[in-house]
Amino acid sequence: PLHVAEQGKVLSESPFPSPNQEEDSEEEAKLKYERLSNGVTDILKNDAASCMTVHDKFLALGTHFGKVYLLDIQGNVTQKFVISSVKINQISLDESGDHVGICSEDGKVQVFGLYTREGFHENFDCPVKVVALHPQFSRSNYKQFVTGGNKLLLYERNWLNRWKTVVLHEGEGTITNIQWRANLIAWANNVGVKIYDISTKQRITNVLRDNVSLRPDMYPCSLCWKDNTTLIVGWGTSIKICAVKERNPTEMRDLPSRYVEIVSAFETEFFISGLAPLVDQLVVLFFVKENTEQMDDEVRARPRLDIIQPLPEGYEEISSDALTVRNFEDNECRDYRLAHAEGEPLFYIISPKDVVVAKERDQDDHIDWLLVKEKYEEALMAAEISFKNIKRHDVQKIGMAFLDHLLKNGEYEVAARKCQKVLGKNMELWENEVYRFKEIGQLKAISQYLPRGDLRLRPAIYEMILHEFLKTDYEGFATLIREWPGELYNNMAIVQAVNDHLKRDPSNSTLLTTLAELYTYDQRYDKALEIYLRLRHKDVYQLIHKHNLFSSIEDKIVLLMDFDKEKAVDMLLDNEDKISIDRVVEELADRPELLHVYLHKLFKRDHHKGQKYHERQIGLYAEYDRPNLLPFLRDSTHCPLEKALEICQERNFVEETVFLLSRMGNCRRALQMIMEELGDVDKAIEFAKEQDDGELWDDLISYSIDKPPFITGLLNNIGTHVDPILLINRIKEGMEIPNLRDSLVKILHDYNLQILLREGCKKILVADSLSLLQKMHRTQMRGVRVNEDSICESCHATILPSEMSKSFSVVVFHCRHMFHKECLPSQGTIPGLQFCNICSAKRRGPGSGILEMKK
């Protein structure tokens, strides 16, 4: 396994960081690493890697001894090509992976099909450092590639199947790197980086090298394309991100159609050995030198692979890993390469004696890290979310590890709460966990979370927990009995256990309440009711209603009333058909204060139901509830007035006595009591108004005539009922009356108001009389229909004769009664005026105005 150090720390030999090392770092690594082994290990024992190119299907590895190996992604050799006896400088593959370009230090360049071996084979007299195939080289019209040594040469096969050579650039030193993407070729030489557009045959930029003091052969330039128009350049400690853009046609003149804009440029801490894009971030391979404590000179340290977030003028470090590759102490910056797979986050770190693969950490790796950090809850959540994608982990095993961790740390309540999530519907696991909680003495913690729905444990489990609570915690025991359905456990066994405890503590209200609930579950309601009444428990009424226990409470009404009068009375009145009024009155006979509450509510509901107890109620109201006595006397039609008057006079209840006197017809005595006992003129005036008796007004005036305040009250209120002159004439000369002027003004104002009202009424009356007279006149002027069906109201024969030829005489009144003239009695006292006998007898008024028909 690969040695990996996170944040600059050396890691162990194991594939994953050790727990101690993971604890040192709070940040989770972004990448994981493994050494490319199998065939690669054998190759590098006797040879050294010089370059490598990555394709989706395979890897191509070049060595210092001039060989090229095709490898699968596990590092197994699938093909071997012996190209030269010296170092392979570069391997290039087209997008399809069918063609390869190889160049070596002795000047050999070979471009051929992996399956045909036909192609370009040439030896040059100088080293060729780089070669790059057209990305679409497999297609016949794109048979192009470039090589770089002292010159940048473009090779293109013409229609005669011959290779044509074009010099694209020369004169600026050795070309050390070439990257071809779509129609753009980027290359680096000793001066800087240039980009050539092969579609327009134009060179479009020149990005100068920043640190010219570094030897380009020791610190070569790193190039990679992020996409078809974005080039990333790393050289020394400088990184630049260049965007190729289209030039505005109006600005072209003799300029190239494209130009390059540097969108980000920044310096790094270490020397750059390779670059690769990772979405919007960069993966950078750094060559690191460190100062030793003993010597002043620098030594080569482990290379670092960093993920950084580029900013316009800087960068943010996302992660940093130091890699312990083989023989890193002997390597230079130029010995490291970074290759990456297009479309897949795989990064290959190539050094002479080692090839390391860096991958993005998957969900299994993330869970591993969380478990090492003892973040079990997050690990469980991550496993639940990604349960379809994880391969090495099991959700339930993580959950069990989480429970173990919580119990180990003494977090019993949290562990119990998590059991529902972790154990789910596995009843076997549930029972095992309950016994584990029992062993550590924490049955109480798990009791609240046990299954109690469709899936249940054996009754013995629940009973074990109830017995545990019964030994140490009565309140907790009561809570469980309330919350758990009765069918979870053997009810009789628990009842027996509770009774055993009550023998030692018979007055314990918690145990008694719980026992009542157990009796209720067992449908032994009479025993439950007995306990509830003894405890005065609030659920007693609910129990009575729910299970119709009215026959059991007939002799317990006083207990119920003592507990809660309002609820008890409401319940008794709502269920009169089950417990009669007479039965309740009989039970409450010795408790008059409770009897009054019951009868009062009964009277409020229905004034007639308890009429035979109204006489008794007079004394109860007088004793316990005087404010409601007067309303009772007013509303009751069944109480004896003499008895009521006697009780009120004994207790000197003036208002009630006044009411009773007035109701019995002794209004003068009632008025006298108001004036003498209460001294309230307003109440006296109100009483006189209610009775509307002239003699009462005289008595009131006589009593008030020598009391100026009373005279003021009379003057203010008497005007609409009695002629004020009667009062004013009887006032003695010289008597000083408070507010006399205001009272007289009010009398005059009331008189004027009466006059106005009378005049208004007179106008309305005259108008209505005239309207009705006109209506009556119109009605009486109408004709009256007489036909064969009409009869005489006196003889009851038809009004018309059978022979119309004979002469006849008929009298028709305006009231529509008809008579034969001979059937009418003689005329009245007024000559020429006759009345309808029928209407006159019924006092409907005369049917005057005769319509006489003669023929």
From TrEMBL:
It is a peripheral membrane protein. GO terms for molecular function: zinc ion binding. Keywords: Autophagy, Cytoplasm, Cytoplasmic vesicle, Endosome, Golgi apparatus, Lysosome, Membrane, Metal-binding, Protein transport, Transport, Zinc, Zinc-finger. CHCR repeats lie at residues 569-713. GO terms for cellular component: clathrin-coated vesicle; cytosol; early endosome membrane; Golgi apparatus; HOPS complex; late endosome membrane; lysosomal membrane. The keyword Transmembrane helix does not apply. It comes from the Eukaryota. Transmembrane segments: none annotated. Plays a role in vesicle-mediated protein trafficking to lysosomal compartments including the endocytic membrane transport pathways. This is Vacuolar protein sorting-associated protein 41 homolog.
